[in-house]
């Protein structure tokens, strides 16, 4: 049997406000007048729904909800309130005992947030929504088709396979109940695998024809189950003959004559600013119901929402009076709750609205009687399984917003998002301020994943390991000081380039600088200490402002470690903060130390972790870290680590968080262990590093007499009082600047690799720091120096002279210098003395 229930009377007063705010004008009148489409039924229908035209071969019209938060920006209290109210009515219908056994299932993409809100209204019910994003290693618990949709296939991917296996009521939530096909397909597919006695279908509006209504009754009798229906309003859509063809013709005619299909845009480049806001999303709380969302998850999210809303409020520009929180396709619930909490935080002084982007192509017509007034078009940015394509944000342009808070998940925080035609750039063309908030994508731990070690060792600290003070840094490494790992440079180079060994399986013989070279180091340090102090201060201030008020600094050993120590010292000097600081290993081609990440996740909130490095070259480590963290999420299910590296210098334009983009001499690049706490570079070798071990490194205690690590740190931090005012101004300028990475360094490296016949970007090392490493650790071929480069290259020129490496001046080089590793594989490529020879 079926039971039909819907709310009588008028919808919430805000539900009747159309996208343009024209009171008394129904936002379906334009379509109704031209195609003869009309709505009949409850008095509330025209307040709840408008009409638009699809670009869809299966259905001409689109019912546009004013209370769903998908196409029409609406008060988040109204959107959330409609879902919760439906959930409470389902709770009353089921009773306490049945409610306690119920599971709620929402439909992607449009009803993911509505379904979650209904689950909140029920109270204890776990929630799952279908998805069109397949997730590696997560088995399907079912699937079904939505025949009229632009993208039809739905997947069910619960982390807990038992979620759908119970016999309690299944509550299915969609935004509209139009033909009943989707619900019938779902129930039929699930009933075969997980039969149960009761289903409840929930929708904002029931728009079935009388014939379709009878089909649900028949189906209920066929499967021998009770099917209840709960809606806010009901009616039918009147469709005259030939409406599909007429609608397609109307869409084609308007799109052919439209001069600006994406809504009004300025002719000049985007003027709005784009900045990130750090949410500090609670650890281990899923971003939504794609893999299931439990009552325990709900409690942790509720506790964290006020603080996250406060961070967004603090990031809003002064004087903002109308703010849109914009979700992302299936990611509807997290931005809805953030918007609702923000609405409560800022009060009546700020008009907060909520909507989301979508895959669905809809015609935009700038008319008060049409539901979709403007359309922004941008490319997909979450690497969708069905390939690239257009995505849309409706009724945002021309909406009078002072700021937009764009909320995406970390899987969608990709270079495509930040491209010149990406969503933030498109928004910035129409809105003065754009804030980007990233929620970590929840990825279930695979069932075959290796068990985590029961206990990882505590970090190594000085003076037992390194010459740094014990509170300056904790090394998440294992001590391999007693193992012989060093090999002659030429042997290592041949093994590395031939593929016979990875560079992290051995260590170069530590370079012992001559007296002349040490004099150069001290002179360089004296000259650049103030410049270094300014860069340290600036990058630390950006981290504190944008990443976390109490960040956990995690240096990428070893070049990042002195920088992490200096950032920690600046935070202590300027703000009285005692920040945790660790050093971890990352290896090109092998990724970051997963056990170190596990230790960090056990001891800190991953959202507070800020990875630190010395400088960027071509951005290889930046890419390596991002890929490694994605893999770690997939294997361990631990989310929240941000792949964005904070660096002292970013000459390659690879990151957003930096102190400077100048390519200058950082004296810590001049030396190896003797400026890095007497620690070697890190080692990853299977016979030394087991599955439950940290990566390894050596402590060169025997070099204590020539250790310059404390001298370097003290020389820079001694300049902190002198540069405070300059740092404040520099940080302010950087925080307001467009720091979007351009990756121009990577492009330059690719060009140089081809121009010099190397054909391997790994053998091109751009920047002063990377060139110095080539001279100290690898077999150099030649150095390219920017014409007119001065004292920053004195030490490189000295090393080049000692090793017989030619220095070639090049005009218009984007870096101060570039080091080229010898592109031949054998020791015959060098002379007997290890000096380079010309090809």
Automatic annotation (TrEMBL):
<dbReference type="InterPro" id="IPR029057">
    <property type="entry name" value="PRTase-like"/>
</dbReference>
<dbReference type="InterPro" id="IPR028157">
    <property type="entry name" value="PELOTA_dom"/>
</dbReference>
<protein>
    <submittedName>
        <fullName>Phosphoribosyltransferase</fullName>
    </submittedName>
</protein>
<keyword id="KW-0328">Glycosyltransferase</keyword>
<dbReference type="InterPro" id="IPR011215">
    <property type="entry name" value="StiP_N"/>
</dbReference>
<dbReference type="InterPro" id="IPR000836">
    <property type="entry name" value="PRTase_dom"/>
</dbReference>
<dbReference type="GO" id="GO:0016757">
    <property type="term" value="F:glycosyltransferase activity"/>
</dbReference>
<feature type="domain" description="PELOTA RNA-binding">
    <location>
        <begin position="743"/>
        <end position="822"/>
    </location>
</feature>
<feature type="domain" description="Orotate phosphoribosyltransferase-like">
    <location>
        <begin position="48"/>
        <end position="235"/>
    </location>
</feature>
<dbReference type="InterPro" id="IPR041688">
    <property type="entry name" value="PRTase_2"/>
</dbReference>
<feature type="domain" description="Cysteine protease StiP N-terminal">
    <location>
        <begin position="466"/>
        <end position="716"/>
    </location>
</feature>
<feature type="region of interest" description="Disordered">
    <location>
        <begin position="1"/>
        <end position="20"/>
    </location>
</feature>
<dbReference type="Pfam" id="PF12500">
    <property type="entry name" value="TRSP"/>
</dbReference>
<dbReference type="Pfam" id="PF11202">
    <property type="entry name" value="StiP"/>
</dbReference>
<dbReference type="InterPro" id="IPR022537">
    <property type="entry name" value="TRSP_dom"/>
</dbReference>
<feature type="domain" description="TRSP">
    <location>
        <begin position="287"/>
        <end position="417"/>
    </location>
</feature>
<keyword id="KW-0808">Transferase</keyword>
<dbReference type="Pfam" id="PF15609">
    <property type="entry name" value="PRTase_2"/>
</dbReference>
<dbReference type="Pfam" id="PF15608">
    <property type="entry name" value="PELOTA_1"/>
</dbReference>
């Amino acid at each position: 049997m079926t039971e039909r229930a819907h709310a009588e009377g008028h919808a919430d007063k805000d539900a009747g406000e159309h996208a343009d705010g024209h009171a008394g004008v129904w936002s379906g009148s334009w379509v109704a007048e031209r195609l003869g489409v009309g709505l009949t039924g409850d008095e509330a229908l025209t307040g709840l729904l408008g009409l638009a035209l699809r670009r869809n071969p299966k259905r001409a019209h689109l019912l546009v909800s004013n209370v769903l938060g998908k196409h029409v920006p609406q008060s988040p209290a109204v959107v959330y309130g409609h879902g919760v109210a439906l959930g409470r009515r389902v709770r009353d219908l089921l009773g306490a005992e049945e409610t306690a056994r119920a599971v709620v299932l929402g439909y992607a993409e449009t009803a993911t947030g509505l379904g979650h809100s209904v689950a909140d209204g029920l109270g204890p019910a776990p929630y799952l929504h279908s998805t069109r994003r397949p997730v590696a290693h997560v088995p399907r618990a079912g699937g079904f088709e939505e025949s009229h949709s632009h993208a039809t296939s739905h997947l069910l991917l619960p982390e807990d396979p038992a979620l759908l296996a119970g016999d309690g009521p299944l509550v299915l939530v969609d935004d509209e109940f139009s033909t009943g096909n989707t619900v019938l397909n779902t129930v039929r597919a699930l009933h075969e695998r997980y039969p149960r006695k009761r289903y409840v279908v929930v929708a904002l509006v029931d728009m079935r024809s009388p014939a379709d209504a009878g089909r649900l009754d028949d189906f209920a009798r066929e499967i021998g189950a009770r099917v209840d229906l709960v809606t806010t309003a009901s009616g039918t859509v009147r469709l005259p003959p030939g409406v599909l063809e007429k609608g397609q013709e109307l869409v084609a005619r308007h799109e052919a004559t439209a001069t600006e299909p994406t809504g009004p845009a300025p002719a000049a480049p985007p003027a709005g600013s784009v900045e990130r806001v750090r949410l500090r999303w609670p650890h281990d709380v899923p971003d939504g119901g794609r893999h299931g969302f439990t009552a325990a998850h709900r409690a942790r999210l509720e506790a964290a929402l006020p603080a996250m809303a406060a961070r967004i409020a603090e990031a809003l520009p002064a004087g903002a009076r109308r703010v849109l929180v914009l979700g992302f396709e299936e990611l509807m619930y997290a931005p809805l709750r953030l918007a609702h909490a923000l609405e409560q935080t800022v009060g009546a002084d700020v008009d907060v609205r909520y909507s989301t982007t979508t895959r669905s192509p809809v015609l935009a017509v700038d008319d008060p009687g049409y539901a979709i007034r403007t359309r922004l078009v941008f490319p997909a940015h979450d690497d969708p399984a069905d390939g690239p394509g257009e995505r849309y944000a409706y009724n945002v342009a021309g909406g009078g917003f002072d700021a937009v808070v764009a909320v995406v998940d970390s899987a969608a925080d990709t270079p495509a998002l930040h491209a010149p035609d990406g969503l933030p750039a498109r928004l910035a063309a129409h809105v003065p301020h754009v804030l980007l908030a990233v929620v970590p994508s929840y990825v279930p731990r695979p069932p075959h994943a290796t068990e985590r070690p029961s206990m990882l060792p505590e970090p190594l600290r000085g003076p037992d390991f390194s010459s740094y003070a014990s509170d300056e840094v904790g090394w998440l490494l294992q001590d391999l000081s007693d193992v012989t790992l060093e090999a002659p440079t030429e042997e290592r180079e041949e093994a590395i380039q031939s593929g016979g060994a990875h560079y992290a399986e051995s260590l170069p013989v530590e370079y012992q600088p001559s007296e002349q070279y040490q004099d150069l180091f001290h002179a360089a340090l004296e000259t650049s200490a103030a410049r270094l102090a300014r860069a340290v201060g600036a990058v630390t201030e950006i981290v504190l402002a944008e990443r976390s008020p109490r960040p956990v600094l995690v240096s990428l050993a070893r070049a990042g470690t002195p920088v992490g120590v200096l950032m920690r010292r600046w935070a202590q000097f300027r703000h009285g903060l005692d920040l945790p600081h660790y050093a971890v290993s990352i290896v090109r081609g092998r990724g970051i130390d997963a056990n170190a990440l596990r230790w960090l996740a056990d001891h800190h909130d991953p959202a507070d972790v800020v990875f630190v490095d010395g400088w960027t070259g071509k951005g290889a480590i930046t890419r390596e870290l991002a890929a490694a963290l994605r893999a770690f999420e997939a294997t361990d299910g631990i989310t929240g680590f941000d792949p964005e590296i904070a660096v002292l210098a970013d000459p390659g334009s690879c990151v957003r968080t930096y102190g400077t983009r100048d390519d200058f001499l950082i004296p810590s690049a001049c030396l190896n262990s003797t400026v890095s706490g007497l620690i070697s570079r890190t080692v990853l070798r299977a016979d030394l590093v087991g599955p439950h071990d940290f990566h390894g490194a050596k402590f060169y205690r025997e070099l204590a007499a020539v250790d310059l690590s404390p001298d370097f740190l003290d020389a820079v931090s001694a300049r902190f009082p002198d540069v405070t005012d300059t740092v404040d101004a520099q940080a302010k300028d950087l925080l307001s600047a467009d720091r979007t990475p351009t990756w121009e360094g990577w492009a330059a490296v690719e060009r140089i690799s081809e121009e010099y016949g190397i054909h391997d970007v790994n053998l091109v090392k751009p920047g002063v720091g990377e060139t110095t490493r080539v001279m100290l650790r690898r077999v150099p071929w030649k150095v390219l120096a920017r014409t007119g480069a001065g004292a920053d290259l004195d030490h490189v020129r000295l090393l080049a002279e000692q090793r017989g490496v030619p220095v070639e001046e090049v005009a218009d080089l984007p870096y101060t210098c570039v080091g080229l590793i010898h592109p031949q594989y054998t020791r015959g490529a060098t002379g007997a003395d290890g000096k380079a020879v010309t090809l």
